[in-house]
Amino acid sequence: MALHKTxxxxxxxxxxxxxxxxxxxxxxxxxxxxxYKYYKWLLWLSLSLYFFTSYLISNNxxxxxxxxxxxxxxxxxxxxxxxxxxxxxxxxxxxxxKVFVYDLPPKYNTDWLSNERCSKHLFASEVAIHxxxxxxxxxxxxxYEADFFFVPVYVSCNFSTVNxxxxxxxxxxxxxSAVNLVSSEYPFWNRSRGSDHVFVASHDFGSCxxxxxxxxxxxxxxxxxxxxxxxxxxxxxxxxxxQKVEHVVIPPYVSPESVQDTMNNSxxxxxxxxxxxxxxxxxxxxxxxxxxxxxxxxxTMIWRKFNGDRRFYLQRHRFAGYQSExxxxxxxxxxxGWAPWSPRLVESVAxxxxxxxxxxxxxLPFLSAVKWSEISITVAERDVGRLxxxxxxxxxxxxxxxxxxxxxPATKRALLFNNQVREGDATWQVLRALSEKxxxxxxxxxxxxxxxxxx
Length: 455
Known about the structure:
single chain; about 450 residues; 5-stranded parallel β-sheet
């Protein structure tokens, strides 16, 4: 009698060996066991198919694990919760973009939220973009499949105890500390020299990290960031040291909730009884204590020339409900301050008031989505004394067409940041801009080189 040893962990092999050793048995036993022979063969085939199918399903349902070594602790800290589902319409146009969001210690970001102004003031796009990316469909938890790496550092939430304005003197050291952390704990910064890493600089002169232009120009862009991508509110059409870095011009932050509340209480299609509106800082004497001319004297000239004109509603003092005044206005003045840009640009568009841009050389955000030339008026700084004449001519000619263009919901949507990415909103526009910079992505450039090699 042949001995049948069972090879370890090989049930299929054992069944096959038993079936091969049936010879020499009586004829009636062979007929009797014929049924069992085919039954065992069928059972073996079924089990093999079952385990093979289970293996395929299991592998398809699990995300691909990183193929290189990364600190398990840091990887898992970014996987604490799956991204929430958001509206996916339109995301196909982002070319399957993938963004990895670093999970930095709270001292770099969320600790600052203890002051509620941090997430609401005009520089708060740094907070809004971070929040939106955390639940976005473009977010990846696998850094090896990422096209870009978002570094969430809030630098505009340190409010001065003297004047209450954001003080960003700590910005450079805070960013340098964050870069040192991610470059020492992860391999991704060093492999691309930071070219696929994204920062936000949402204050006056953006990536120069200073509120006064002469100091900002002297300091320039920090050396550690010069190879990266900066999302910044500062933008001009001419050469400037503060945009000598790969950048995307973004709008200042205006709370979409505040806009909606204003629209509920003061519908944008209601009566507009204010012809020209401005509320904000207007120096009676433009040269301040630092010896600098605020707004290049533009706001002072507006006050001196038109304060007595009943068609101009000019206010120098703060008012919490000033958005209701915008909703009542036909034209809203948007003169430069220390920097060319102003939150009034967004508030005016959102509330249906024609923005009058007075800032020579300004580069406005998201030109492919917002047709600024069709929804706004541009007045040169030297022509500010002719404002009344210029706006009278617009009112008599093409005001109706401008207002019709202005009331397009897609235009307003493109300038507002939401807590979750919505198709066409400001964060979506940022992602769209990044999708056009895939040549800076380490992963994207490797894929491109491979495709060129294959063809």
